[in-house]
Amino acid sequence: MEYPRMRWVEVLPVAQDGREMFYLKDPEGLTEKSLVVSKDVLFLIALMDGKRSLRDLQAEYVRASGTVVHIEQIQSVVEAMDTGLLLDNERFQTCLQELKSEYEAAPYRQPCCSGRSYPDNREDLFAYLEKMFAGTNRPEVSREIRGILAPHIDYARGYKVYRETYKYLPFTDKELIVVFGTCHGLTPNLWNISLKDSYTPFGILPCTSGLATLVRENPVLNKHLDEWCHRTEHSIELQLPIIQFQLRDRNVEILSILTGSMHQHVTGKDQSDERPLQDLADNLKRVLEKYGKPYLLIAGADLAHIGAQFGDKYELDGPVMRQSKAKDEEILETVKQVHSQHFLAAIRAEEDRRRICGLAPIYFQLSLLEGSTCDLVDYDQWTDGASSVSFAGAVFYK
What we know:
- By secondary structure, the protein is α/β, with parallel strands linked by helices.
- It has 2 domains: about 10-100, no CATH class; about 110-395, Protocatechuate 4,5-dioxygenase, Chain B (3-Layer(aba) Sandwich).
- It is about 35% helix and about 20% strand.
- α7 runs antiparallel to α9 (about 275-290) and α11 (about 340-350) runs antiparallel to α12 (about 360-370).
- The longest helix is centred in the C-terminal third of the chain and has 19 residues, at about 320-335.
């Protein structure tokens, strides 16, 4: 506590009583306690690197701001951070290890969005999804469906694209569904594979022991097993109830893969070697071929994230929104071509300034579905006037 060290957290700007404040969000989801701080306190917290003492923090703050801050005030901030498990210290590490051990021992992944993003009981969830898909036109499907690109934004904001995209799902006969999703927190690897069964209010979607064994035996994929980051991540979870609803008369299996950041591949001059990316895709293909069951590839992936919530200072007026849509259309054209390299190049061209958070899931989906054809089925931009998220739906055919 004398040399506090801040954990990695997500900082989200919020308005409180007309003041600019910042919400510190714990990406590990260890506590429900929220901490909202002022700009001055955020600056103080940013200095907490484990090397500065409380006196050092005081001196740095006074030197930078010209304002006196008392040691007792700093101690109060540090104690609030400690209570919220936002400091990287023994208390946090002990809590983290206990929760990780508990989660590893659990027989399946419990939903984290249930009761918030969708109803937490079977009957209400069924009614909610039945309403979502009511009145959708029956699509004409004459080819074998190999993949689906869907949003991972919450149902309330992505309602239209979810329904227009997932109405194609009943027309596939695949027994295994491989789902890629974006991990919005820190991840140890680019791929983070879960071999747990997944539970929703509709019941369990299994990852069979046969498939799990083949993944563990693969010398590349077995280095990318990580259950913990799946615990509080929504990007795959939001696909699952819809899959169960649309395929409710069938028994299907699931393999969940959360992807980490590919930022180094699209920004700056140091764009990393892409051979490791292809190696991951090739080894997954080998495992799936050895397993032998026909499979469908789903990516839960949003597109641009722009505006105040994401740190942009410009206003989201009509021209900005139209320009962002035009950039999305350029990216989606490469998706329609089912060309992973062109997709990556399109995002590199703008150095990912609009934060395409579905970058990795879409890239790997395109890599694995090379040779397919693709139809874009829907697109939308959600906005509250200050921030915006865009997303699209697509279906891939053999």
